[in-house]
Amino acid sequence: MTAEFPLAVHALVYLLHRGQVISSQELADNICTNPARVRKVLSKLHHAGLVEAERGQGSGYLTRPDAGAITLRAVLRALDETPVAVSWRSGDVDRACQVSSGMAAVMDGLYGQLNEQCEKKLETVTVGSINDQLFRGKEKEK
Amino acid sequence: MTAEFPLAVHALVYLLHRGQVISSQELADNICTNPARVRKVLSKLHHAGLVEAERGQGSGYLTRPDAGAITLRAVLRALDETPVAVSWRSGDVDRACQVSSGMAAVMDGLYGQLNEQCEKKLETVTVGSINDQLFRGKEKEK
DNA sequence: GCTAAATGTAACTATTATAATTACATTAAA
DNA sequence: TTTAATGTAATTATAATAGTTACATTTAGC
């Protein structure tokens, strides 16, 4: 899982919290990164329909009406990521040895199972529930 | 999760499969990496008591008697790794804004939950079960 | 219409993380 | 005593990731 995931969640929660049009500049400031990176990630969320993006002067990003119900699984999918990702593969598929030739596929299957477990969990966590965790027992303040 | 994990699993399965003392050179050849890296990882497994390591001429690594029962969770712990690891943190703990200051901790909590889910799954997978997957329906061959 | 201020996106650079390599002290069999 | 192995650290090379720059596109406001 890339840092784009926490960045996206942070942005969605901040947008929900503020409830108005926010520029990539302001989001970047709050998230502590740069505006171009914010736009790159938020652009993906927009393509997936998870956020509204306006254009032109005075524009920016805005939550959709049911933003609180967006699951983190949906965010992950919008970014086309997986929680567990190991790029390196052991062995060599062309070897006669079944351990060497088969291990990479078996491990990939395992990563798939782990990702399914994670996605099941992420399905139960929403942008709204993250917001609640941040403001639990406290009134909403800027 | 680092590539050390699949490397370690591969090595353990190969050792179980062969059932004799194997050098880091031979393991590296089967895994498709270099001997020093194998030794670095297997050394950790040895410290955790998951594999026997001999010293001196003609030495190498050997499975312990119950190697098939070693869980992948135990392997992961021996390597001191977590399935989900996102190093980048959004926001700034010193900000007045609770979203900016609190998001990193909330996300860390989430990663912890995901890792727990994954470890529960890894507890059910053993070196022996991986070996079975590789040789399912086939007799054990070199 | 013109200007200003915003997003979308691509190309590039810098930084960090990871894997590979090299080297050598230590160990124990022959 | 020699040889062949592991243990481990230091270094280098490569790959992945984050940051930066640039500019075309869009639209509000004058």
The CATH class name of the domain at 4-84 and 125-135 in chain A reads: Mainly Alpha
Instruction: Indicate the structural class of chain A.
Output: mainly alpha
What's the CATH superfamily of the domain at 4-84 and 125-135 in chain A, by name? Winged helix-like DNA-binding domain superfamily/Winged helix DNA-binding domain
Question: β content of chain A, as a range?
Answer: under 5%
CATH hierarchy: architecture of the domain at 4-84 and 125-135 in chain A: Orthogonal Bundle
Strand order of the largest sheet of chain A: 1-2
**Overall pLDDT level of chain A:** 94
Give the overall form of chain A: elongated
Commentary on this structure:
The structure is a homodimer of 142-residue chains. With 142 residues, chain A is an all-alpha fold. The first copy, chain A, has a domain at 4-84 and 125-135: Winged helix-like DNA-binding domain superfamily/Winged helix DNA-binding domain (Arc Repressor Mutant, subunit A, Orthogonal Bundle). Chain A is built from 6 helices and 2 strands. Chain A has helices spanning 4-18, 24-31, 35-47, 72-78, 98-122, 127-135; strands at residues 52-53, 61-62. Chain A has a two-stranded antiparallel sheet with strand order 1-2. In chain A, β1 and β2 form a beta hairpin. The longest helix of chain A is centred in the C-terminal third of the chain and has 25 residues, at 98-122. Chain A is elongated, with a radius of gyration of 19 Å. The model of chain A has no long low-confidence stretch (mean pLDDT 94). Chains A and B meet through α1, α5 and α6 of A and α1, α5 and α6 of B.
